[in-house]
Specification:
This protein is α+β, with helices and mostly antiparallel strands. Helices cover 57% and strands 17% of the residues. It has a domain of 57 residues: Roll (Nucleotide Exchange Factor Grpe, Chain A, domain 2). It is built from six helices and six strands, in the order ααααααββββββ. A hairpin with a 2-residue loop joins strand 4 and strand 5. The model has no long low-confidence stretch (mean pLDDT 85).
Length: 184
Amino acid sequence: MTQENQNPPPEQEDVAADPQVNEAAASEPAAVKTPEQEIADLNQQIGELQDNFLRAKAEGENIRRRAVEDIAKAHKFAIESFAEHLVPVTDSLYAALSTDAGDAKAFKEGLEITLKQLLSAFEKGRMTEINPAVGDKFDPHHHQAIASVPSEQDPNTVVSVLQRGYTVADRVLRPALVTVSAPK
């Protein structure tokens, strides 16, 4: 036999050497359950687990339902802030229409102020203009070429802007309509 087999592990030596542990183990009666008691205990555990499962399932469904409601509310009211910024622009336009001023210069100044209000509302709504300068390189992600015209400019550069484009939070809402220079 080897040395390991002859010597018991230290834990076993301590338990065997301690007479109080042996007496305590001998004095406690072994709790023996009848099969009916074990079945009853297991059925109780099954009932508790089923109850916990149903509660967790209901909680998950409630969380999902609340998330769907929150998303619906977010979609419904997402434009509210932007709309609040447009109300003063509408007020200015109604005021301009209600005046009988025959002065074209004053009317133009009023329109310029209203345009500034509108651009301010766009900025607050994270909406920016796409207005390429003449000679800028054509960008198909932000520009839509309507025509290709002969020009002294480099090929595929903007010759004119027919309609400004817009982005909302770096997403193109409408590309700028441009004419581009034709290749030579």
